[in-house]
Amino acid sequence: MSVQPVRLFGDPVLRTPAAPVETFDAELRKLVADLTETMHAEGGAGLAAPQIGVGLRVFTFSVDGTEGHLINPTWTASDAEEQFGPEGCLSIPGLLWDCRRWLNVVATGWDMHGEPIRVEGTAKLARAIQHETDHLDGVVFVDRLDADTRKRAMAEIRAAQWFGAEPVVKVSPHPMFGKAR
């Protein structure tokens, strides 16, 4: 297990849809461990594989004592209730904007051993599931903001000290997953 550098907004890997996981092996388990360790080190509620440069449909989450991971996830809203509140992203450090999401979701996928898993999320966990699944689809949460907020967000991103800096990238410790797809 090791903490990996988080790719920042502007890195093309964040806009590239991730490939489905087809092999459930020790390499995948190491990826889940690295995602979990990096998420904790960065203080995030979730982290998707593309955020560390790995183009596979995997994410981890840790919200209010509920921790886990989902591989090849899908989700649906449980009802028509929405939430509107602050959202941030480890790939857009230090910045938050109010974003509309479903309040209750049910996600399904697989665990690192290839066993089916179901996660019911409400409030912050529901937000994390939607946010991380977006990353797997090449969507960044600023894409979900209303037009005025998105305009302000993009101005704040462009003004951020980290924006436009040379990305911190190292060779992935996941040889079969090293290239973002």
From TrEMBL:
Write down how the cofactor binds this protein.
Binds 1 Fe(2+) ion.
Cross-referenced InterPro entries:
Peptide_deformylase, Peptide_deformylase_sf
Task: Look up the EC number in the record and give it.
Answer: 3.5.1.88
Catalytic center residues = 132
Residues that, per the record, bind Fe cation: 89, 131, 135
Reaction(s) catalysed (UniProt annotation): N-terminal N-formyl-L-methionyl-[peptide] + H2O = N-terminal L-methionyl-[peptide] + formate
Keywords annotated in UniProt = Hydrolase, Iron, Metal-binding, Protein biosynthesis
Q: Which domain of life is it from?
A: Bacteria
Q: Which of the seven top EC classes does this enzyme belong to?
A: hydrolase
Cofactor section: Fe(2+)
**Role played:** Removes the formyl group from the N-terminal Met of newly synthesized proteins. Requires at least a dipeptide for an efficient rate of reaction. N-terminal L-methionine is a prerequisite for activity but the enzyme has broad specificity at other positions.
The record's annotation in PANTHER family points to: PEPTIDE DEFORMYLASE, PEPTIDE DEFORMYLASE, MITOCHONDRIAL
Q: Which family does it belong to?
A: Belongs to the polypeptide deformylase family.
Q: What is this protein called?
A: Peptide deformylase
Its source organism is: Pseudonocardia xishanensis
